[in-house]
Amino acid sequence: MNTVTRNRTQSLSTAAILAIAALGAGITTLGEPATGAPVQIGQPAPDFTAKDSKGNGLTLSQYRGKTVVLEWTNADCPYTHKHYSSGNMQSIQALARKNGVVWLTVISSARGKQGYVNGPAADALTQSRNAVPTAVLLDPSGTLGRLYGAKTTPHMFVIDKNGALQYMGGIDSMATAEVSDIAKAEPFLQEAMLAVAQGSPVAHAVTRPYGCAVKY
Q1: Which residues of 40-54 are buried (b: 16+ CB within 10 A; e: fewer)?
Q2: How confident is the model over 53-95, as pLDDT tens digits?
Q3: DSSP characters for 61-75?
Q4: Residue 126 contacts by C-beta under 8 Å, 6 or more apart in sequence?
Q5: Cβ neighbourhood burial of 127 (10 Å; 0-12, 13-18, 19+)
């Protein structure tokens, strides 16, 4: 290693080194800039038809008149595990239900890739985690994920009662897999969900998602 390379290496922060290592392991700690997403805040959220874990066909438009949360998930991702093992995700889901919010969990992992599950396995996972989504949508083709530009697990979207997208980004402000960081983070998703449900402006409408790359 020459002097210039050594100095550059030594100048990397611990966080940067960990991020590079995570990328090598197939984990993305921050999503792509939100400007690259095919959906825009304040614009109609793309309608879709998708099969849920029980084989039922669901559309976004059937929930018009209600606030809707879309959550991209991968049970084998450590960032997803952070929010489920701590009970944080279930707590926000329960809060959503209390406020009449529809919560659709989406699994876009392709068959044979990390996080892929079939319907019965998805239902078993929901039960074992004590999760309370309105439904779990199976998207092994990645059609729904690409429609929304979902990049990470978790990646969160909030749609208002008129069908317009009002939030997209991370579940919170701390891009780590450490449970202890949840209490320190600003709860972007929860704040946005409640604001939209109450008809109030969203303070942070676009944030960077973090987690494992969606396994298309």
Answers
A1: eeeeebeebebebbe
A2: 999 999 999 999 999 999 999 999 999 999 999 999 999 999 9
A3: GGGTTS-EEEEE--T
A4: 53, 105, 133, 136
A5: exposed
Q: What is the pTM of this model?
A: 0.85
Quickly tell me which residue has 């991968």 as its tokens: 74
Alpha-carbon gap, residue 93 to 103, rounded angstroms: 7
**Cα dihedral 134, 139, 142, 145 in deg (nearest 10):** 0
Pick left, alpha or beta for residue 136 (phi over 0 → left; psi -120 to 50 → alpha; otherwise beta): beta
Q: Six-digit token pair at 72? A: 């991209």
Q: Which conformational region is residue 72 in: left (phi greater than 0), alpha (psi within -120 to 50 degrees), or beta?
A: beta
Q: Is the dihedral of CA 106, 202, 186, 15 positive or negative?
A: positive
If DSSP states are collapsed to H, E and C, what string results for 105-135? EEECCCCCCCCCCCHHHHHHHHHHCCCCCCE
Q: Coil, helix or strand for 154?
A: coil
